[in-house]
Amino acid sequence: MSTLGWWRLVYAAFAGFLLFHGFSASENAPNYSFMHNATSAPFLSYYDYIVVGGGTAGCPLAATLSHRANVLLLERGGSPYGDPNITKLVNFGASLSDLSPWSPSQRFISTDGVINSRARVLGGGSCLNAGFYTRASPEYIRQAGWDGRLVNQSYEWVEKLVAFEPHLGHWQSAVRNGLLEVGVVPFNGFTFDHINGTKVGGTIFDEQGNRHTAADLLEYANPRGLTVLLYATVQKILFRFRGRRSRPEAYGVIFRDGSGIEHRAYLKYGFKNEIIISAGALGSPQLLMLSGVGPVAHLRAHNIPVVLDQPLVGQGMCDNPMNAVFVPSPIPVEVSLIEVVGITHFGSYIEAASGETFSASVTTTSRNYGMFSPKIGQLSTVPPKQRTPEAIARSVEYLDNLDQAALQGGFILEKIMGPISTGHLELQTRNPDDNPSVTFNYFQHPLDLQRCVQGIQTIGKIVESESFSKFRYDYMSWPGLVNMTEHSPINLLPRHYNSSIPLETFCRDTVMTIWHYHGGCQVSRVVDPDYKVLGVEALRVIDGSTFNYSPGTNPQATVMMLGRYMGVKILRERLGN
Fold it and tell me: 232 and 239 in contact (C-beta within 8 Å)?
């Protein structure tokens, strides 16, 4: 081997070591020297990579790229650090119910009538969700065409900082035992892996109830290679054509800071430099359209100059429907979000949440009602099209007047895999701060509805199991619980009902979101298997908008993994190995 070849081998090995073992000069959250308010940014700047969206994928992606390149990460929201409504488990739901312009969440309502939220904070959805951490199945990874070894290394890289084993209380233990009793077997213990049967999954909440988010993965970053700008809202991607027959090439972005001042960031000269959109399942297709990449008729209707006619941008939008049943308990239950899951053979995932997440928030004087609160839009007791602000206000007022005993208990929920039903996304305005219009078409496909019915039937068996007996009232029948869930604002003291409703109707009328929506920039439709936008140079999309199906029982682990995974692959391409 020549001397030059030997040094190349050493260089590649050293670069690989840095990628997988971090950088010695890394910093600890929340004291990032590279994080700034966008108002302090120069009006003009140049970088090797510009990542749009500091969310669940964008943070690990930018942290990885920073080791061998100069990276700009643009986040339209603020920092999650120092906000107890984000960082504390007991305050779950408080951020989702905050409708202020500076809230870390931004509410939207799909045309289906289901109230939903999108993240507006560094760390993205990992700052708002119920915290469950679980990997995608091996079959999902094979179908995605990912390198299994690098996938596992990337998951482990994430898990070192943000994933923990929960300590089950009595309620979650009863759900686990009930799942096993009704045949959701085998018991797979505690594992991050996606395996049929019942398991205890991971959580991004530590033993003290503190949330750890994708923003924490910036601890892996090279501080000298990364700039993070907060309250930086990207208006559009800039494109150019180098010749008469050339494809459009992304070369910069225009963004506004919190004061409305316009800034421009450009790619440095270099054919491997790129802009990467990681703005989420709503934000990524929205930004492509605002930049002139999308269905030509739709772009022209909004007076947007067409860069590329791409009719599949915004198509394939999916949201995994969630349905839940409240189970009043005659005894107190612990505070818990999602910790146990039953992965059934028929395509439904059974999970549970319980306890004093229905109590007052640290920063408010009223109850927050946690994961199933009408305050955050989880108004399952009103059919979707009737979930108006007035209906929400009536439900909140009703619940605020209830005795605390009426709120003692928890929910057992089911979420279907997939889903098969799909919808679409369209612009409503040319303002990137405004929500696009989204249709998910919940239960449009009959198999989705069948899976929901089977999931609800399984919940009924769990509630009636011996394992769960101490957490239910003896005189409360399963049909009564179903009726109570449908006809009450959220949860009430037990009542007697003599009639029952078809479970198909229950599924449609009580559908809620579990915030696992995806699609809009799917692989092989909008991006290629390397997440490069088809028909465009120097532009990728890397986030959940590229998914055809939701991975595992909760996508956040895989979205974080994907950011790391693609960061490593991109740097390998850059380094030529």
Answer: no
Q: At a CB cut-off of 8 Å and minimum separation 6, what does 235 contact? A: 253, 254, 255, 256, 262, 290, 432
Annotated binding-site residue? 516: yes
Rounded to an integer, what distance in angstroms lies between the CA atom of residue 106 and that of residue 99?
7
Q: Are 403 and 143 in contact (CB under 8 A)?
A: no
Task: pLDDT tens for the chain, 577 residues: list them.
Answer: 555 454 444 444 445 555 555 544 679 999 999 999 999 999 999 999 999 999 999 999 999 999 999 999 999 999 999 999 999 998 888 888 888 999 999 999 899 988 899 999 999 999 999 999 999 999 999 999 999 999 999 999 999 999 999 999 999 999 999 999 999 999 999 999 999 999 999 999 999 999 999 999 999 999 999 999 999 999 999 999 987 768 999 999 999 999 999 999 999 999 899 999 999 999 999 999 999 999 999 999 999 999 999 999 999 999 999 999 989 899 988 889 999 999 999 999 999 998 754 443 434 444 544 555 555 555 555 556 666 676 666 666 655 555 555 568 888 999 999 999 999 999 999 999 999 999 999 999 999 999 999 999 999 999 999 999 999 998 888 888 887 776 654 322 233 333 567 899 888 888 889 999 999 999 999 999 999 999 999 999 999 999 999 999 999 999 999 999 999 999 999 998 6
Question: Residue 406's CB: how many other CB atoms inside 10 A?
Answer: 17
* Distance linking the first and last C-alpha atoms of the chain: 17
Give Cα 323 distance to the centre of its chain. 18
Q: What count of other Cβ atoms lies within 10 Å of the Cβ of residue 219? A: 20
Q: Cα(151)–Cα(558) distance, rounded to whole angstroms? A: 9
Torsion angle of the four alpha carbons 63, 65, 66, 68, in this order, in degrees rounded to the nearest 10: 150
Beta-bridge mates of residue 418: none
Bridge partners, residue 500, by sequence: none
Long-range contacts, 267-271 (Cβ 8 Å, 24+): 267/46, 267/47, 267/48, 267/49, 267/50, 267/538, 268/46, 268/47, 268/48, 268/70, 270/48
Set 67, 212, 516, 518: catalytic member: 516
Task: Say whether 36 is catalytic.
Answer: no
The residue type of 536 is V
How far is it, in rounded angstroms, from Cα 49 to Cα 68? Answer: 11
Q: Is 544 assigned to a binding site?
A: yes
Residue that the structure tokens 């179908």 belong to? 143
Using a 10 angstrom Cβ sphere, with 0-12 exposed, 13-18 middle and 19 or more buried, the burial of residue 98 is: buried
The answer to whether 445 is a known ligand-binding residue is no
The answer to whether 515 is a known ligand-binding residue is: yes
Separation CA 268–CA 339 (nearest Å): 45
